[in-house]
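Entry 14. Ran structure prediction on the chain below.
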Amino acid sequence: MKTAALVMAAGRGERAGAESPKQYRALIGRPVLRWSLAALAGRIDRVVAVIDPEWRAAAGAAAEGLAVELVAGGDTRTASVRAGLEALAADAPDVVLIHDAARPGLTGTTIAALLAALEGAPAAAPALRVDDALKRVDGQGAVVGEAQRDGVRRVQTPQAFRYAAIKAAYEALPEDATYEDDLAVARAAGHAIALVPGDLKLMKLTHAEDFAIMEQLMAGVACVGSGFDAHRFGPGDHVTLCGVKIAHTKGVVGHSDADVGWHALTDAILGAIGAGDIGAHFPPSDARWKGAASEIFLAHARDLVSEAGGRIVHVDLTLVCEAPKIAPHREAMRAKTAEVLGLPMARVSVKATTTEKMGFAGREEGLAAQAVATVEMPR
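Output, structure tokens:
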């Protein structure tokens, strides 16, 4: 069965109260649109984002690295769906999922349930029960009556269809027709509809306060990694710690720039996602890394977290040395680390301690660092 998905992202989302459309606002470190696209890419053969051409650059950034096509939408949702369905026509799929970009909580479980439902029906959608009491209100919000919740469902997206059926249904619509959703179009064409279990995480982002709710619903598992590194002193006139060059009477011996702070932190981040250690990714035997800036290593670990669908939440670093003095450079180290990891300063801790003249650090033979990184990963 050849599958396709249309992600509807051409709307303005003005009720969300931001300068940019809600689908491009950040949600747990990613644009909302990115969450929806990433959920479909890899599970669906062809993914098309239907966008407002004015926001093509933002859409392209949200889709970076994913097998996603961008298609210009129309002035209404109906026109945008038509444009998306037409874009699929040259290589028509057997089924198509039509999804709102503003529902970023899509999972593979829902996608699989919808595809299975289409084996016995021309249309399907996820739906939730209505458990709250329903009231009818007037234009001023005053209660004027009751509404029955029996036989009522909250329908979500993606809404899934056999492609030929939904395309014909849209083609049969008058130009000025308006429908609440794609199921209504299918139903108007006489197609039966199957419902599969919905998901609370599939709530639609409509108002500004919805973002805080969605962040809580999508919160992942906190994973903690630790890292340690040490380097001996050698000839030189400076050391590099957390990306900051500090004048000193000695240098540090190491294959790269020997930044023990960022080396320990890189290992901590890699450990949090079970991705080995810095040596596995950047072997000292590889001449490419001779004298390399440790920012390369730290950025690589950061990117691996992002590719795995996670986000770095907090890092805590302790430098162990008698000299040089860390305090005058602490804030610069925090700023550099925050910049590379894309974190606010409040989520980056840099501390220093000595060993009270004990051991190799106490004898000023070298310096060391230990780090802890907290990473939130998808459930």
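The CA atoms of residues 60 and 115 lie 27 Å apart. Will compare against last week's run tomorrow.
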